[in-house]
């Protein structure tokens, strides 16, 4: 496993790592593919494919200059932008996966992520409210789960962890989610005494 050096540099010199991990790659990618934008992208692509097919079936009207065919290519390339955005999100999920890593130490929870810009989060156990476990459909199918650690700032459970910046921390798509939940729960109890 390649370690995210910046995340490890955030640790204190005497801070012990009790658990470290990355998301399950298959789940991470499948959640990127089967996101709410998928049906919209499919309908949009089919709609444009119908018009492109009808246009070329009839034959693209040509003039003495190739302006009209170039216009149609440019128009549909732009008109398909929602499909390109969806496909880009799926492709960039591989890069985002590469930069996503989780650490639990005796002092708190650390998370790194992002694809173009990187995010490094740390929350001490004093900042974290009791954790919650979440398993979506894909999580259940692959036997993984998410552990969400809200802060005491009234976070809602399970925000859209990929597109927002909640003040809590989510460790997502891990196979040992129950063990991580129990470990953090035990560490939170020790720190609350």
Question: What characteristics describe this protein?
Answer:
4-stranded antiparallel β-sheet, 19% strand, 3-stranded antiparallel β-sheet, 7 strands, 193 residues
Helix/strand-derived class? alpha+beta
Main pleated sheet: 4 strands, antiparallel
Element order, helices and strands?
A: HEHHHHEEEEHEEH
What fraction of residues sit in β-strands? 15-25%
Number of helices: 7
Shape: elongated
Sheet with most strands: strand arrangement: 1-2-3-4
* Multimerization status: single chain
What do these coordinates show?
The protein is of the alpha+beta class. Helices cover 46% and strands 19% of the residues. The protein has helices spanning 5-9, 25-33, 37-58, 67-79, 81-98, 137-142, 177-192; strands at 17-21, 101-105, 108-113, 119-124, 132-134, 145-149, 169-174. The chain has a four-stranded antiparallel beta sheet with strand order 1-2-3-4. Strands 5-6-7 form a three-stranded antiparallel beta sheet.
Brief account:
The chain is α+β, with helices and mostly antiparallel strands and 193 residues long. It contains 7 helices and 7 strands.
Topology:
Blueprint: H1 5-9, E1 17-21, H2 25-33, H3 37-58, H4 67-79, H5 81-98, E2 101-105, E3 108-113, E4 119-124, E5 132-134, H6 137-142, E6 145-149, E7 169-174, H7 177-192
Antiparallel strand pairs: 1-2, 2-3, 3-4, 5-6, 6-7
